[in-house]
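Input:
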Amino acid sequence: MKDKVVKILTFIAAVIILIICGGMVYSLVTGAVPAFEKFGVDFIFKKDWQYTPDNEQYGALPFIVGTLITAFLAVIISFPFSMAVSLFVGEYFKDTKVAAFLGTATELLAGIPSIVYGLWGFYVLRPIMVGMGLSEQGFGIMTSSVVLAIMIIPYAASLSSEFIRMVPNDIKEGAYSLGATKYEVVFHVILPAAASGISSSYILSLGRALGETMAVTMLIGNTNTLPTSLTDTANTMASIIANQFGEAAGLKLSALIAIGLLLFLITALINFIAKMIIKKYAI
Amino acid sequence: MKLKIVVLSVFFATCCISCSNVKTEISGAGATFPLPYYNMVFKDFSDTTGINVAYGGIGSGGGIRSLKDGIVDFAATDAFLSKAEEAEIAKSVIHVPTCLGAVVVAYNVPEISSLRLSADVLADIFLGVITKWNDGRIVETNPDIVLPDLNITVIYRSDGSGTTNVFTDYLSKISDRWRAEIGAAKSVSFPVGVAAKGNPGVAGIIGQTAGAIGYVGSEYAFARKIAFASLQNKAGKFVKPSTASISAAASANIPADSKIMITNSAAEEAYPISCFTWIVIYREQNYAKRSPEQAQATVKLLNFILSNEAQSKAANVHYAPLPENVRCNALKSLKSVTYNGKAIE
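Output:
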């Protein structure tokens, strides 16, 4: 009897989640229809964003480019740091107090609200960028990416260190018994064995960087043009929506929803790829 | 034990009575530009009448949309509704002007606390033609100060905004090139610069960035003590935004419905980027299951804002009171508001 109740309850909960998910996709798609009807697939490749009343032109390209550049750059910047932390915690100082402390400290970074990162970027990082002569006012892709990199370190580091930990002891001991040094074990045994897990952890943190809104909106400069260099100001898909939905109506609102749909698809695709990699190359 | 129960039940009973006897509360949403003034007036109103006003500064466009959806009692906007926009709402609305404000050109140049900008120089800065603070054309109107060799960073609004509408309306009036290439609207494609969300966002970046120039609602620059420029008005005089110079901009003929942009006013003492700000309500107040009390409270609030008492306080937060004829016309149009077709007392 109890079994049945639990079964039914979990089934209902699962169905509700599915319905909500489906509803979100449905409303995104119906909302995006007018924009795609007006501009066709071209919407994705157009770079104008013009609100002139009788000649509205909306294209998502600057925002797609801005999103991809900031997110990939963030992953690249964060790589050496998160990799080092995960090796430190997962292998070199495995199960020591120092590792536990460092692990918790890194995970703590994940708990900081993004608006706090934004504030830090605005008041601390931005003047540093100006001081280094990277840009005139300190806003732009570079500043956003550095902050994003710090934000995603905990995701990449804690997942990777789990995968490094999971490498079976037998393999490692086998290598040691053949006379391998620690360095050789780490780089020729552990990393190749954990590679699929590690790469999927980076893909997942990329997904996190793609959707980040608040901190990026505060730092990227919010200009609706195609960026041409890493110090240029730009806009990401998330930040253009956050900036402009309040006053948007009609075609512009539809264009914003279409951008939301594209962002949803890109993030879903990236998560899907990560899952495939884990599944295919799991140890 | 028994005593405890009695005390508790009395306590809950009084709670319930006070619940059922809910105070009327009215809600509005819209422009952030007049927010400092509204905060003050709404508080005075609830102190004198006991009616609370909940106001959300979500932007003019958001306010109008909320009114259209029937979820607020009034909307506040810095851009009056065009004929097309009114047609879209389908029901008759009235615009009640509430005060006059100014959009100031705020800047951050180290050690420069007073700056005079002529109309064409202002337009060329925002067009990206003038890029240095020590450009000859800026120096020309500021012979007494030494301007640094610093790049100009234009800051504008990333969100749609009534403030942008007023500012670009002014630029379109003074610059043919601006009118032809960019135009006036709640959001336009600025050719140069960096954008930030909301008046506080723009004011914040200007305060933090050497070489920045941008436009904000006057109170936001005053409150943060950011320097702002004297602008050259149509009569050729350099004028600082002040209660007097803003009032002067509205001294010309104002139509009875007050739907007019008063930027680039011809009056000699006028500050050129002045504007009205409005509250918009439905003429027929029985919509979305609103009670007659709510309708009455809404009209009462607007009458209160138009009273001499509330108007005289506008200057405290750097806005300007409405001219007497505009105030009278607004009071008159308020009389046409009805509930179920009957006038509201």
